[in-house]
Amino acid sequence: MESKQKVLIVDDDEDLLEQLTQILEGAGYEVRTAASQAEGEEMLLSIRPDLAVFDLMMEEMDSGFMLSHYLKKLYSDVPVILLTAVTSSTGLSFQESSTEARSWVKVDEVLDKPVRAEQIKSVVARLLSEVKGAPDG
User: In this model, does residue 89 exceed pLDDT 80?
Assistant: First the structure.
């Protein structure tokens, strides 16, 4: 029997953590959660997720970016989804379009909050299938 794919969610909003956990567990994933950048970093030392979902702003304005960078140093092939409410509140967009931007923004997908259940399930499934379909190397 194949084990469930592990998704790590790190967000300081407990309601969002619970909501995303229910959505992704309902879709068949094993979900682990952390409520801060520091807790997320600690958890990454003991588990290797198949995919991670990080909030952009937690302890610091760039906690999600820092956590993504940390994860990619440990496990370069693990896809990262960054959740942010910054676009709706400021109009700034983190959709990285240039190669230069992608070299320092260590995320695979940026989703604006609030994220819909079907949207997060679809993006998680797509990113995990891309990793699974990638050649070993």
Answer: no
